[in-house]
Every structure is written in C-alpha cells, then in structure tokens.
Amino acid sequence: MTKQFSLAHLTALGCSPPELIYIAARAGYDFVSLRPIFMGLPGEPNYALAENKQMMKETKAALSETGVKVLDIELARIYEGLDPKKYLPAFEVAAELGGKHVLSSIWTDDRNFAIECFQELCDLAEPFGLTIDLEFVPIASVKNLKGALEVLHAAKKENAGLMIDAHHFHRSKDKIEELDTIPREWFHYFHLCDATSTIPTSADEMVRILREERLYVGEGGIDVASIVNRLPEMPYAIELPNLKRSQELGYEEFARHCLETAKDYFAAHPRTSTVNP
C-alpha cells in the first residue's frame, strides 16, 4: 500500500495556509494539516480562516490548483471554562475545505468536564462529517495513552478517534504492546517525527524540543517502526518543527527533507508485523 503524507502546519508555522499548500504540493505531499483555530500563543500567527475571508478564498484556490487535500485541522483544546461551540466556525471551515478530522487535546484536570466537552465536540462535528481525534500530550492533563483511552471509552462517540504522535508516545513512556488492544476504527492518522532518546526531566525543555527541535524520522532515538507496525496503515502527518533547520533551509526545502527522510526510513524499515494490520 502506498503511504500518504500530510504536511502539518507546525512544521512550517510561518507559512499561511495557502503558502503551506503550495509548498506541500511542490514537495510531494498528499495532504496538509491546517491550524485555523487561533490559540493566542506567543508569536503564533493568526490563521483563523473563518474570520479572514480573503485568506479562506486563497486557501480554496490553492487546494483547487494543486490537488492537495486537507487531512485535518487543529487544535480544539479542552480547557477549564471552555464552551465547545467556540470551535463551530473552524468546523465549518474544515468541512468547506474537505477536511476529515479535528485534533483535540485536554488541558484541564476536571475529568468529568473534559469528557463532557469531548462528547459535545463530537456531537458538534458529526453533522460536518468530521471526527474528533484525541491526542495525549506529556505536558497536558491527558498526558499518556492510558488517560486518552479512559476518555474515549467514557465518551462512547462513533466519530471519536485517537491520534498518536511519535514524540508524545515516546515521552509518555507508553508500551507498544498497549496499542494492540485499541479498536482499529479509532485510528485515522498519525503524527510522524523523531527526537532524542533521552527524555527531558524539565517541562520547559520538553516544551522546547516538541515545539522547536524535533528530528527527521530515523535520525533520533524513537523506534518509530515498532510503533507504526502495531497500527493500521493510515496517513502520516509529518509534524516536525525545527526552528534552526527551517530557518537555514527555508520552509520548502525543509518540508522536502522531512518527507524524503520519512520515505527513506519506511523503505529501510518495511512493515513486517502482522499484529492487527
């Protein structure tokens, strides 16, 4: 089966959605993963397409011209006091652009509130044909596979999914054998990257690496092949922010290197496992 790849926005966050699409097309990607939900982080560009009609028009034109498709949008964070309806305009954008999935993560320790919000997100997304894919993040409230599975089992929503990031899986010290018990229909796409095998003990250093210094697949110490061999075949979104390299190479050449090294890695590590293919 031919692998499909998406260029995740965080890999080239300085690029507007139209720019990202053109770069993805020239570099050979099948999809893009966009960030039309503005989170207000320091230095974060605002790509809220629901509020920027001109950029939305240019994004649709770029998709039409290149044939690149939208895989998913992000990030529908769940945090204390959230009204999930806040994300409705972004869901409308995703559907209009042909996207299929919405990435979510949980940043509140109020478990009942988090589950209720996640359920509401699923209900809001369902009419648009979107899934809500929960990502566990080692610096968030739901920080490992166990926590994510607890939410998904409690939510019991047909359009819910689980999105695993290679970096987060490794940093959370999860075991690959745990992947065998997960319903296959929960997997829609996977975040591909690498990082050093040493897990930072400092939260600040963890954040710095995950946002600024991830590595090409096969370059670090994460056994990516062992993870993906336990999972069904699905699109791979390359989320690989590396500020130094993207500045040195430029976003397009960096995105091309990210894709080429990922393809080289998979060629050198063909799927051999038959566990839940």
Across the major sheet, the strand order is 1-2-3-4-5-6-7-8
| CATH fold call | TIM Barrel
CATH superfamily assignment?
Divalent-metal-dependent TIM barrel enzymes
Q: How many domains make up the 3D coordinates? A: 1
Q: If you average the pLDDT, what whole number results?
A: 95
Structural class: alpha/beta
The radius of gyration over CA amounts to: 17 Å
Number of helices: 10
What's the main sheet like?
8 strands, parallel, barrel
Kindly state the percentage of residues in helix.
25-40%
Spans where pLDDT lies below 50 across 5 or more residues? none
Write down the secondary-structure element order.
Answer: EHEHEHEHEHEHEHHEHH
CATH class: Alpha Beta
Protein described:
Keywords: Isomerase. Pfam families: AP_endonuc_2. Strands 1-2-3-4-5-6-7-8 form an 8-stranded parallel β-barrel, surrounded by 5 helices. Helix 1 (17-27) runs parallel beside helix 2 (53-66) and helix 1 packs across helix 10 (251-268). The protein is globular, with a radius of gyration of 17 Å. It has a single domain (5-268), classed as Divalent-metal-dependent TIM barrel enzymes (TIM Barrel), CATH 3.20.20.150. The chain has helices at residues 17-27, 53-66, 88-96, 111-125, 145-155, 166-171, 203-212, 224-228, 243-249, 251-268, and strands at 5-8, 31-34, 69-78, 101-106, 131-135, 160-165, 190-192, 236-238. By secondary structure, the protein is α/β, with parallel strands linked by helices.
